[in-house]
Amino acid sequence: MKTMNKALLGAAALMMLPGMAAADVGVGVRASTLGLGVELGMPLTDKLNVRAGINRISRDNDQTIDNIDYTATLDFSSTNLMLDFHPFEGSFHLTAGYLMSSNKLSATATPAAGVTIGNTTYTPAEIGRIDASIEFGSGPYVGFGWGNLPASGLGFSLEVGLVQMGVPDVNFSVSDPNNLNAVTQADINAEIANMQADLDEFEQYPVISLGLSYGF
Question: What are the pLDDT digits (tens) for 96-108?
Answer without folding.
Answer: 999 999 999 999 9
